[in-house]
Design brief:
globular; 11 strands; 10 helices; binds NADP nicotinamide-adenine-dinucleotide phosphate
């Protein structure tokens, strides 16, 4: 039976570590790290994500602000608001919750965020720096994956990591991060996607398998080798009449059967999911350190 990777516990540990650092700043009576989250429109899931992020900031003593804008907000107004926070010393991280309403160009909005405040790690400068191995903000979910591997001491150097999924928010960044010649990375990386023929040929060779597909229970036991470490990024809602809500959340991996072959596995929920907010807080703290240091020198 596999060791279950407890993302909830690790995320709480990281939050506690950051809380201690913020308390220390408070004791010095100096400015604390601040995150502003900009939400445009009424998307229920986005509202809930933004509330969770803000609550997490407050819990560790960081400054947090939610800018709620109506759906009909113009692109110009949104860009102006980003300019305002780019030059606001109280906020070190700026996060624009995606998706944005269709009339707003997401690329233009992301590119307007000052790279030194890009705590989501989606700015092309952050992405480029990540690819060439320079210091940057790593996007939160992929960074959570690497942090789990690190904290569970799962060796990546020289190991074959197979990533299923090539999205810009999970698959591509996690693959690029693991490819770097660095501690906690240095892996041999294969990236698979919907055009991959005979997917099992690749997944079966993985020492570490990262699933970021968005299809419930897609990775089955016959697709993996004994002893594989499995990181399941997927979050899928499936019908469940036994639940009062009528649904349950499952990952991209058939947890019940794959866990019998794996050495390590993340559950869903409680695996990668809780790490995303912890990494956002970590990036905000990092942004604070970089910005305040720059101002001092
Ligand atoms: N905080 C978190 O824990 C967190 C954060 C982000 C996402 N997620 C979850 O992670 C999952 C993936 O998210 P995402 O945004 O990366 O999804 P996405 O943008 O829809 O990308 C899915 C990827 O899976 C690939 N794919 C689809 N069907 C496939 C198949 N039959 N065989 C091989 N590859 C296939 C797609 O290939 P093509 O490129 O060829 O289409 C694509 O690259 C979702 O369940 C999402 O909810 C969780």
């Amino acid at each position: 039976m596999a060791t279950i990777i407890d993302g909830k516990k690790i995320a709480l540990e990281i939050r506690a570590e950051l809380k201690e650092k913020v308390s220390w700043l408070k004791s010095l009576n100096i400015r604390v790290p601040g995150l502003v989250t900009i939400l445009v429109g009424e998307n229920a899931a986005s509202q809930s994500y933004v509330t969770s992020k803000s609550k997490a900031c407050n819990e560790i003593g960081m400054l947090s602000k939610i800018e709620k804008l109506p759906t009909e907000t113009t692109e110009e107004h949104l860009l102006g608001l980003i300019d305002h926070y780019n030059s606001n010393d109280d906020y070190h991280g700026i996060l624009v919750q995606l998706p944005l309403p269709k009339h707003i160009n997401e690329d233009k909005v992301i590119e307007r965020i000052a790279p030194e405040k890009d705590v989501d790690g989606f700015h092309p400068i952050s992405v480029g720096r990540l690819v060439i191995g320079k210091d940057t903000f790593y996007p939160c979910t992929p960074n959570g994956v690497l942090e789990l591997l690190k904290r569970y001491k799962i060796e990546t150097s020289g190991k074959h990591v197979v990533v299923v999924g090539r999205s810009n928010i999970v698959g591509k960044p996690v693959a690029n991060m693991l490819l770097q010649k660095k501690d906690g990375a240095n892996a041999i990386v294969t990236v698979c996607h919907s055009a991959s023929k005979d997917l099992t040929r690749f997944t079966k060779d993985a020492d570490i398998l990262i699933a970021a597909i968005g299809k419930p229970n897609f990775i089955t036991a016959d697709m993996v080798k004994d002893g594989v470490a499995v990181i399941d990024v997927g979050i899928n809602r499936v019908e469940d009449s036994s639940s009062p809500k009528g649904y349950k959340i499952v990952g991209d991996v058939d947890f019940e059967n794959v866990s019998k072959k794996a050495s390590f596995i993340t559950p869903v929920p409680g695996g990668v999911g809780p790490m995303t907010i912890a990494m956002l807080l970590q990036n905000t703290f990092l942004a604070y350190i970089k910005i305040t240091k720059q101002k001092l020198t």
